Amino acid sequence: MTHIVLVRMSTDASRGEEVACHLREDALPRASSRPGLVSGGWLLPPDGERGAGVLVLDSREAAEQAADWPRGRPYDAAQAWNIDAVDTFEEVAAG
Q1: Among 81, 75, 64, which residue's Cα sits nearest to residue 5?
Q2: In 3D, which of 1, 10, 30, 3 has the Cα closest to residue 88?
Q3: Four-point Cα dihedral 52, 57, 63, 68, nearest 10
Q4: Are residues 62 and 3 in contact, defined by beta-carbon separation less than 8 angstroms?
Q5: What is the pLDDT confidence band of residue 52, given thresholds at 50, 70 and 90?
Q6: Do residues 86 and 3 lie in contact, with contact meaning Cβ atoms separated by under 8 Å?
Q7: CA angle, 16 as apex, 14 and 21 as ends, to 5°?
Q8: How far apart are CA 7 and CA 13, in angstroms?
Q9: Are 50 and 11 in contact (CB under 8 A)?
Q10: Which helix (H) or strand (E) holds 50?
């Protein structure tokens, strides 16, 4: 059964390129190395004030392990991004 990790973050809109760089150079390689990863993506809206990461994994255990790192990140006001919430879901329907 497929499971999803949803990472929600606040971002500093004035530092959008720094946020995008973090997602490409840090988040993507970290997620790509996770056991059980099926696919993943990182999303930024036009206003640049928030973002999200969506990871699709092949098991609940893989999803919980993938969620551990972002859940453990402390808030840092000096960063261009901070993690607000990390949730795991079971996919019950897909198209």
Answers
A1: 64
A2: 3
A3: -60
A4: yes
A5: very high
A6: no
A7: 145
A8: 18
A9: yes
A10: strand 50-57
What is residue 22's three-state secondary structure?
helix
Length of the chain: 95
- Partnered with residue 82 across adjacent β-strands are 10
Q: Helices (DSSP H) in 5-79: which residue ranges?
A: 16-22, 28-32, 60-71
The pLDDT value recorded for residue 18 is: 94
Q: Are 81 and 16 in contact (CB under 8 A)?
A: no
Sketch out the chain's domains with CATH numbers.
3-90 (3.30.70.100)
Q: pTM of the entire structure?
A: 0.90
